Amino acid sequence: MFIVDAHCDTLIDVLAGKRRLADESKGGHIDIPRLKRGGVGAQVFAAWIERSYLPGSAARRACQYIDAFYSEIEANPHDLVFVKTAADLARAEAEGKIGAILAIEGGEALDGAVEMIRIFYRLGVRLMTITWSDRNELGDGAYDPTGGGLTKAGVKVVQEMNRMGMVVDVSHAADATFWSILEHTHGPLVASHSNSRALFNHPRNLTDKQVEAIAARGGVVCATLVAPFLGPAYNSVSGLVDHIDHLVKVAGIEHVGTGSDFDGVGPDGLVAGMADTSDMGMIVAEMRRRGRPEHGIEAIMGRNLARVFAQILG
Ligand SMILES: [Zn+2]
Description:
Layout (H helix, E strand, L loop, with lengths): L2 E3 L5 H5 L16 H7 L1 E9 L9 H18 L4 E3 L3 H9 L3 E8 L10 H7 L2 E5 L22 H13 L2 E3 L5 H10 L5 E2 L16 H9 L3 E4 L3 H4 L6 H15 L4 E3 L22 H9 L4 H20 L1
């Protein structure tokens, strides 16, 4: 099975010098030995900018994260493939390596300069979450809604992302920002780590209408392992699969994936019952137990995201 995980924050520990991906760590959720045990074929690594670098130093901080990512790619040529194109992703799978996709979580990283999106693309960034939780130069985040959609700069940035072949990630966007992104982009969108608001009413989750809209555009909604977004009644592997089942019911089997948020949550932030990426098979096992056909499980665990990444990255 080719598992693709749409979101992790492992670069935080890498940049802090707390983790090298080659070595199995007792802390956190992701390193190469555990990715292998979990059967993960491709992992999105996000650069997330701490608030202390705002405003004004976010682009430099993003570059430091990107440098940390490069150092891991260079140190692990036998295990990692830096995925910048569809061919890179196919090569990672063919060679049995882990495809590593570089991402930015939060358009704060541009420091308000639209041209930075082109610079980050040239450095290999292939996905950007337009906002993090706060309002930024591009639009409102989910925890900071003012009712406005994308700003003028935000519109320019998502249009540039479309033109260059970067994945536009709507997770963390406020509702108005979400619909504004829909309006100003074309082709598939990805929600890298969001659950169903119909099951648990949380601003970081997506309404059925939003899920339908992503599906209509050929995109993928990635259920996340974050306990506060699953909700107290769904804080288990079974509850996570409840969210997945609902997303499939609304979006269709071709438009659901997973985005763990490993290393982006504290000890109590992760779904109960799962310890780290080596437990990804637990989601597969629960879907099998419920009788979902194997090709459907493969679609949810990775094929859908691989299809959309290949389509957008070209
Ligand atoms: Zn996040």
